[in-house]
Write a structure and sequence with these properties.
115 residues; mainly alpha; 434 Repressor (Amino-terminal Domain); 2 domains
Length: 115
């Protein structure tokens, strides 16, 4: 599944296997094996290299059950988002609480899709 996502994102960017392999500083054969599903257990370091090269996140590459790619580009943090984050910090929200809230939202969205 990871390989299919990598290939889809690579093609959306218009990258050849060679170009992505060069950008990620990994071998072309390793990338090819990933995309073909011959290697289903890449390390986090390899996934990070690929994700950065595709301007995405590891989460998007490995997210289970998602076949539609909302965006292969990192979101732009607008002034509105910065204000929301600043207000949350002023209100006393910690990083841990923010992460917990994100996990809750992902859980909620996953359950909405399966129900």
């Amino acid at each position: 599944m990871v390989g299919k996502k990598i290939k889809t994102l690579r093609l959306k960017k218009g990258y050849s296997i060679t170009r992505l392999a060069e950008k990620a500083h990994i071998s072309k054969s390793y990338l090819s094996h990933l995309e073909k599903g011959l290697n289903n257990n890449p390390s986090l370091q390899m996934l990070e290299k690929i994700a950065v090269s595709l301007n995405t996140t590891i989460d998007e590459l490995i997210e289970a059950g998602s076949s539609n790619y909302i965006s292969s580009v990192k979101p732009i943090i607008t002034r509105d988002w910065l204000c929301l984050i600043e207000q949350a910090i002023k209100d006393g929200m910690t990083k841990e609480e923010f992460i917990e809230f994100q996990c809750y939202l992902k859980f909620k969205k996953t359950n909405e899709l399966t129900n």
